[in-house]
Amino acid sequence: MTDAPAKTMKDDPEDRHETRGRPVVMGVEERRKRVLDALDAIFARAGMAGLTMAAIAAEAGMSKRTLYTLFPDRAALFRAHLDRVRAAFVHPLGESDLGLPLAGRLRRLLEPDPRLPVSGLPRAVLRQAIAEADREPALARDCIERCFHADRALIRAELDRAVARAEATIPDTAAAAAMLQSMIQMPVLDLLLDPGFRPCPDAVRTRFELGLATFLGGIGAAV
Q1: Residue 161: is its pLDDT beyond 90?
Q2: For residue 3, is pLDDT > 50?
């Protein structure tokens, strides 16, 4: 007797949805999207305590086995969530953007979108990463990279481009990138330590505009 074929992710009936009465197998990216949507939905209802792998799988409409195939643990889930949030707020420049002056490039790269929904989950993930940094240093380092260093590298690339084009004089573009990042973003400690600190879109916009204008004036670039 031959062995039955091993059950794969696409064979799992819990991971199918109906289209005109016929089951359609979801691709990996669709599954990942459903899991990350489930993460936001559960957090809104039950906070971090509700984010068990069993609850996330049930909310996403899939088996725990499939969930673990996509994300081996909660840390991997949180990393993917932070990547998703970052992609919504930071917009890497395309070829057509590179002809803009420095102010236009930085605005295109970093300008906040007031239409984006505000979620407390990224802050909760960062708080947990800080609290567990001694025990889970890899997650803490990943949070720093995803939330701060990756964006700073994009800013520095544009400042380096500005220096090469003689748009501005910047002796240390790495330090300048870190400075601009802190000037245009809401204060990190307030966001992390004060649960009641929820800046409105107007406050976020005002800080961005003032920070960018002050920075550009300081390096002698056109606003």
Answers
A1: yes
A2: no
CATH topology of domain 75-218: Tetracycline Repressor; domain 2 (1.10.357)
For residue 35, is pLDDT > 70?
yes
CATH superfamily of domain region 13-71: Homeodomain-like (1.10.10.60)
Report long-range pairs for 173-178 (Cβ below 8 Å, ≥24 apart): 176/215, 176/219, 177/152, 177/153, 178/152
| Residues 68, 116, 133, 173, CA torsion sign | positive
Question: CB neighbours of 186 closer than 8 A, spacing ≥ 6?
Answer: 199, 203, 204, 207
Per-residue model confidence as pLDDT tens digits over 11-31: 454 555 544 555 456 789 999
Is the pLDDT at 78 greater than 70? The verdict is yes
Measured CA to CA in angstroms, residue 130 lies from 11, 58, 123, 149 at distances of 39, 28, 11, 16
